[in-house]
Amino acid sequence: MKILVVNAGSSSLKYQLFDMDEGKVLAKGNCERIGIDGLVTHKCPGKEDYKSAAELPDHRAAIKLVLSLLTDEKLGVLKGVEEIDAVGHRVAHGGEKLRQSSVLGEEEIKYLETIVELNPLHGPPAISGFKACKEVMPNITHVGVFDTSYYSDIQDYAYIYPIPYELYEQYKVRRYGFHGTSHRYVAGKAAELLGNKNAKIITCHLGNGSSITATVNGKAVDTSMGFTPQDGVPMGTRSGALDPTVVPFLIKKLGITAEEAEKLINSKSGLLGVSGISSDCRDVGEAAANGNYRAQLALKILVHNVKKIIGSYVAEMNGVDALVFTAGIGENDRQLREDVCKEMSYLGIEIDEAYNKSCARGEIADITKQGAKVKTFVIPTNEEFMIASDTQILAKK
Ligand code: AMP
């Protein structure tokens, strides 16, 4: 079965074509700068990489280009579009109704349109990406895989905010959680490695956006992102959790609007805001190694907050069997992993520092110190594979 996975952002459309029978990626790429000055990159294992400027006024043009590349005699891997059996769409927000991966029909899209205000950044491009794909591939199954759905079983006391309850009832203000597909994938892998599907697992997805999730028995019980992906640990440009009154204080003090304040905590904070250097952890790490105080401080704040959330989840779950690092920082930044895991032996978390420094990147690694009670793993995430396998299951039904 051949499954096309599509991840439509506001000005981009990423894709991967999977051959599920062979368990491999046949092609992948990205249409960027949609609506600006389009650019496409396309890769097929064993073939030359393709990169070119392209006329990409909208998502419809992007998906048409993707299909022409996939079926191109020289660059492609398919004889015709009809070889694609189903399409899996990454959708950030499924609201309260779309609690699991679902076949996308008219009803589902209508519902997604009603919750766009919960997800103003990613909702509209996901919907237009779906509509564009449906138009050019009308006769196959399209499946939505939602970042929020991994959290649909968390308890009310973990997702209701302690503000007037009517605000939840009226406006659906609650914790939703994000990055669920990534957490589900790496928590599943960790449970497999432990040989225990009932394990208590803490997964740290640390990238440009970061979140931490606690999983028990294969189900998420809590997560650090909340109503929006703004909550939790500091990120590239997002502050993460703040005393909520900081925002109205700044609105008054700086004479800015609510939208400007949101931009401040969303795009100018986190590693970038504290270091004043960059949102990229590599740049901040380099400056820190050269003695830059604010870069060092930005990383210490990140480590401090990751540790705090890990500790709180151990308390919530009454223990932990495995700690997992994933995403750009979690998979690659060995120093940060070491710093997070330092002085957590009381919780049973101890890593083999030498192996943590030398283990190969891009592969699963068990960095646990011999004899430690809790396993610590590095597990490369693979959200696209998760989307493809959910799509395969639903397309077969
Ligand atoms: P992601 O959003 O998962 O793509 O992760 C992006 C983040 O991962 C950026 O902050 C990068 O600096 C960080 N990252 C990627 N590679 C490395 C690396 N080799 N060392 C440290 N951080 C890295």
Describe what you observe in this structure.
The chain has 397 residues and is of the alpha/beta class. The protein has two domains: 2-150, Nucleotidyltransferase, domain 5 (2-Layer Sandwich); 195-378, Nucleotidyltransferase, domain 5, CATH 3.30.420. Helix content is 39%, strand content 19%. The chain is built from 15 helices and 14 strands. It has helices at residues 59-70, 106-114, 123-136, 156-159, 165-171, 180-194, 246-254, 258-267, 270-275, 281-289, 293-317, 327-332, 334-341, 353-358, 383-396, and strands at residues 2-8, 13-19, 24-32, 39-43, 50-53, 86-91, 102-103, 141-146, 200-206, 210-216, 219-223, 322-326, 365-366, 375-378. The longest helix is centred in the C-terminal third of the chain and has 25 residues, at 293-317. The mean pLDDT is 97. The chain binds adenosine monophosphate (AMP). Adenosine monophosphate (AMP) binds next to α10 and α12.
Mean pLDDT: 97
CATH class of the largest domain: Alpha Beta
Number of strands: 14
Distance between the termini: 13 Å
Largest sheet: 8 strands, mixed
Assembly level: single chain
**Number of structural units classed as domains:** 2
> Which strand order spans the largest sheet, edge to edge or round the barrel?
5-4-3-2-1-6-8-7
Helices and strands, in order, run as EEEEEHEEHHEHHHEEEHHHHHEHHHEEH
**In the CATH hierarchy, what is the architecture of the largest domain at level 2?**
2-Layer Sandwich
- And the CATH topology of the largest domain? Nucleotidyltransferase, domain 5
Return Rg in Å: 21 Å
Name of the CATH homologous superfamily of the largest domain:
ATPase, nucleotide binding domain
